[in-house]
Design brief:
- The chain is an alpha/beta fold.
- It has a domain of 172 residues: Vaccinia Virus protein VP39 (Rossmann fold, 3-Layer(aba) Sandwich).
- The chain has a seven-stranded mixed beta sheet with strand order 3-2-1-4-5-7-6, sandwiched between helices.
- Strand 2, helix 4 and strand 3 form a beta-alpha-beta unit.
- The chain is globular.
- The mean pLDDT is 97.
- Bound molecules: S-adenosylmethionine.
């Protein structure tokens, strides 16, 4: 599974987002990460890309997510990577962050808003805990523009659970963020989906042994449906960078 992840995303943290190593490196640059900068990564899972960002930039990082299992794996990985002194993990809902106002210089979240219902509350919480002029970089999977009727239904069925959303630029405006950059990264998403499909097929016997045949067939079916939706313009993946307003 680690080999598969490395072939698709270029990392081996147990990632569940579609953030590639190249994308993570771009996030580090957009957020101007460096030593002494305090980064908050929400929906951190088992540490991707937050721990990698701390490794390449020297910044301090707080990881937050709801399941303890992922955070435990992240803390173990932080120890292995020599990051324990610069890393803390906090179990929290992104819509109710347990941090004081203006605590962070930079924020990130990878494909998290499309996995949770209360997107505006999370963005408002991000703004509350962000210092003035702090930057936030994030990615989302969203319904393609001008998709309605039966095509919209198909997009919803093939996307993540909470794919339905107001336009993210509008949510950012309502929550006190100013968009610095908005980029559609659906082509990279399609490439990653295809690489994962090929990677699973190429390692089918070994993966079946570890995960079982149902996991393999269900994963392939879901990935192929998502790929069809992305190629047909029903779903898109976007990357945003925003700055905290005064
Ligand atoms: C696509 S995964 C990304 C995980 C990790 N950052 C990665 O790139 O592999 C989305 C993450 O969002 C988390 N999540 C979902 N709802 C959340 C919420 N309300 N508050 C915080 N995290 C949430 C999930 O637990 C999951 O770990």
């Amino acid at each position: 599974m680690q080999e598969l992840e490395r072939s698709v995303l270029g990392c081996d943290y147990g990632a569940t987002s579609w953030t590639t190593r190249l994308e993570a490196e771009r996030i580090a640059s957009l957020l101007e990460l460096r030593p002494m900068v305090r980064l908050l990564d929400i929906g951190a899972g088992s540490g991707w890309p937050a721990l990698y960002l701390a490794t390449i930039s020297g910044c301090d990082v707080t990881l937050s997510d709801i399941p303890m299992s992922g955070l435990r794996a992240a803390v173990a990985r932080a120890s292995l990577d020599g990051l324990r002194a610069r890393c803390q993990a906090v179990a929290a809902d992104g819509a109710y962050l347990p941090f004081a106002d203006a605590s962070f210089d930079a924020l990130s979240h990878s494909d998290v808003l499309c996995c949770m219902p209360d997107k505006l509350s999370m963005l408002r919480e991000c703004r509350r805990v962000a210092r003035s002029k702090a930057r936030m970089a994030f990615s989302v999977i969203a319904i393609g523009r001008s998709i309605d009727g039966a095509r919209r239904r198909a997009a919803i069925d093939s996307g993540p659970t909470f794919v339905v959303s107001e336009d993210y630029a509008i949510l950012l405006d309502w929550s006190g963020w100013r968009v610095l950059e908005r980029k559609e990264i659906s082509n990279d998403f399609a490439v990653a989906l295809k690489t994962r499909i090929c990677g699973i097929n190429a390692r089918c016997d070994a993966i079946t042994e570890v995960r079982g045949p149902e996991w393999v067939s269900e994963s392939l079916e879901r990935l192929q449906a998502t790929l069809r939706a992305v190629e047909g313009g029903l779903l898109q993946r976007e990357a945003f960078c925003a700055i905290a307003g005064e």
